[in-house]
Design goal:
Elements lengths: L4 E5 L5 H6 L16 E10 L5 E3 L4 E2 L14 E2 L5 H16 L7 E12 L19 E10 L1 E3 L2 E4 L6 E5 L5 E6 L4 E4 L2 E3 L6 E10 L1
Antiparallel strand pairs: 1-11, 2-3, 2-6, 4-5, 6-14, 7-11, 7-14, 8-13, 9-10, 9-12
Length: 207
Amino acid sequence: MKKFYKLKKINNISQELTLSFQKLPLDSYTKANYDFRKRRFSIGKFNYNKVIHWYTNNVFFQSLEINSYNGNLNRNFENIDDNVLKEIETQILPNIICELPLSEYQVGIHQIRVFSEDNTLGLVAPEGIHQDGFKFLAICCIAKKNISGAITQIIDQDKITIVYEKALNPFDLIIFNDEIFYHYTSSFKSKNNKIESYRDVFVFTFK
């Protein structure tokens, strides 16, 4: 498989979608002694006609080999709201699918807010440098507020050579081979502890 990563900018994201991150439930599978992540998750099948059928099953599973932090665990999350999924289908997914080889894909979408409170760290990737066990991955930043850090890295197979490094800004979209590249996003701190601090993203998985 050819090495591939691409950064794009998306447009026309509604305020309704942006505000939907405020209603995410806590992710109960974190292991720190404080809360730092909220999440919803949906999974579906994307066919050759570019039509998505969303499943009712919202269980996310990774092996311990792939995910040393949450591996060998069936993680159950609430589904992403229907109106948010509809906007993802029209405004974000087409920007990803056009960059991938023509195929049918199982698509997973994680809607995630990582936040920092009371001088705690916002732990974006507590598992460290990793792959997620899919063909392709995409990360789309929707919003961030009052944070310092959260640097995203795309790393070559040697786990040393950094091929891309940047703090994703709102509406940045990065797409890459998960079978070839590793990735990581550093933790962040609040710039001002009196103001709420968060980073909102969608993570897309394709297999």
